[in-house]
Amino acid sequence: MEHKVEKLKINYKTLEEFKKFKEYGHQELSMIEDLEANIIENDSNSPFYGIYFGDKLVARMSLYTIQSKFDRYFAPPQDYLELWKLEVLPDYQRKGYGKALVEFAKSFGLPIKTNSRIRSFDFWTALGFTPATYEVERDKGENPLVWYPAGVTEQVH
Amino acid sequence: MEHKVEKLKINYKTLEEFKKFKEYGHQELSMIEDLEANIIENDSNSPFYGIYFGDKLVARMSLYTIQSKFDRYFAPPQDYLELWKLEVLPDYQRKGYGKALVEFAKSFGLPIKTNSRIRSFDFWTALGFTPATYEVERDKGENPLVWYPAGVTEQVH
To answer: Which residues form the domain of B39?
Structure first.
């Protein structure tokens, strides 16, 4: 089954759907505040992508382009994608939604960095991600996993 | 009851104790590799601090000084502490161990930044931490909480 990935619009409906996800925090609260204060408009683009089942949002992730000048993970240094808050609602897990989101992220052809919860390690490695060599001053306790497109390797410090 | 906070030494005993903690990842694996490869010596200092109950490590946190030139949280920009992996083993929770570690971190007199899991929000606010205003390009989905010593305020961008 094909899962259609959509860029999510920020509006009250989307933000209400976000409340169903476990990883809900300052980012979502900030979006609500920005909408309420008219700092952003209804239906502004968000850094989130999602998959709907009918009109219900069942999976989402956030994707953000980091500029090459801030790249401390890839060689040669280049723009890359930071992926976070990948999450599929419990009743919809193990149906390919998570994989569809990650494959969508890969389709941009840029390297990807994500921070894995350890319990999702096997999910990421099955999709071709590998652990970045841990560096305390860069990673500060995070568990970064990276995906290299062809021609890209790890940045050595 | 007074809890004594100690800087932890990296050795096989400490690293074996670390396995009891939920937040165990690339950082700990990297420390084991460095020890095995003789890149670091037995009993090197680590960024971890902990509290022992008898000879058992029951609580820990990691503390790392971020240099002022990288400070994007505090005004005026200054050296600050990044605190992560604060964790108390289940049988020892609600006995003041977590609070003792945080009070120890505060005793350096530097601002502190930590990334809260949402479910620990009340713990941090009770200790005087407040959410930093969320900025997507800086925080990338994290939920930073900060503690300001006297004379320090939030950095505005």
So the answer is: 5-154
Please check whether residue B123 touches A, CB under 8 A.
Answer: no
Tokens of residue B125, six digits: 């606010």
Total count of domains within chain B: 1
> Of A54, A120, A33, A56, whose CA–CA distance to A83 is shortest?
A120
B-chain CB neighbours of A137 within 8 Å are: 64
> What's the pLDDT tens digit per position in A94-139?
999 999 999 999 999 999 999 987 778 999 999 999 999 999 989 9
Domain at A73, CATH number = 3.40.630.30
Is the interface score ipTM higher than 0.90?
no
Evaluate the omega torsion of the peptide bond into residue B76 and state whether it is cis, within 30 degrees of 0. Answer: yes
- Taking CA–CA distances from A22, the nearest residue in chain B reads B118
Predicted TM-score (pTM) of this structure: 0.91
**A29: contact with B, CB 8 A cutoff:** yes
Q: Do A26 and B131 touch (CB under 8 A)?
A: yes
